[in-house]
Amino acid sequence: MPKIVVKLQNKWLDVKEEMLHSFIRKLLPIKSSQSLIDYIDIIPGSVTIIYHVHDCTADMLKEHLQTKLEFMHLIGVFSLYINDNPPVLQKDENMNFTFELALLEAVTAGNNEAVEFLLQLKTVNIDHTNEEGKTALMLACERGHEDIVHSLQSAGANVNIQDNNGWTALMIASEHNHISI
Q1: Is the fold of 3-90 the same as that of 99-175?
Q2: Using N-to-C axis directions, what is the helix angle for 99-109 and 112-120, rounded to 10°?
Q3: Is the alpha carbon torsion for 5, 8, 14, 18 positive or negative?
Q4: What is the CB neighbour count within 10 angstroms for residue 70?
Q5: Which of 64, 163, 48, 165 is nearest to 104 (CA)?
Q6: Where would you tag: which of 16, 78, 104, 123 has the fewest CB atoms within 10 A of its CB?
Q7: In whole angstroms, what is the distance from residue 181 CA to residue 144 CA?
């Protein structure tokens, strides 16, 4: 039975336990009904989950997690080990990590899975802007990520916000010839 050790950015301290359950379910290749409460260890500055995965081999788990690297990085995982093997994911902890910046990065990367997950957190300011005054919706319109545009609109993104140049999301979509948006 493999053991995973997952370290999450410090903003995960503010997330409700049910979202940690949702995160683990999203991460694992099999459905798990195991309780998480006994496996969460809060260390100053980050959240660490030590979890024994039933009905799965270490090799199967590693293969599956390799397909989730971008997702994990985007939502704030900075370290993941299986048993005592070399890390599947190892980055420096980002003390400036926020779910708002993660959402902007996930939209820019076109990672719909990460966008959907971050929107489920309910603590994310969906209309947060980057240094250019662009929201996640504007970035999705700029890049033509139609599915992400729909997800953001369904989650209540404000379509009337203007960036630093006075452009709205619709104007940006039009400028980049994304007329289906």
Answers
A1: no
A2: 160
A3: negative
A4: 14
A5: 163
A6: 16
A7: 7
The CATH fold of domain 99-175: 1.25.40
pTM over 0.70: yes
Tokens 């989650």 found at: 155
Show Cβ contacts of residue 169 under 8 Å, excluding neighbours closer than 6 positions: 135, 137, 138, 140, 141, 149, 157, 159, 161
Query: Whats the size of the chain, residue-wise?
Result: 181
20: tokens are 């940690």
Per-residue pLDDT of the chain (181 residues; tens, 9 = 90+): 888 999 999 898 888 878 888 888 888 876 656 666 666 666 666 788 888 887 889 999 999 999 999 999 999 999 999 998 999 999 998 989 999 999 999 999 999 999 999 999 988 999 999 999 999 999 999 999 999 999 999 999 999 999 999 999 999 999 999 988 8
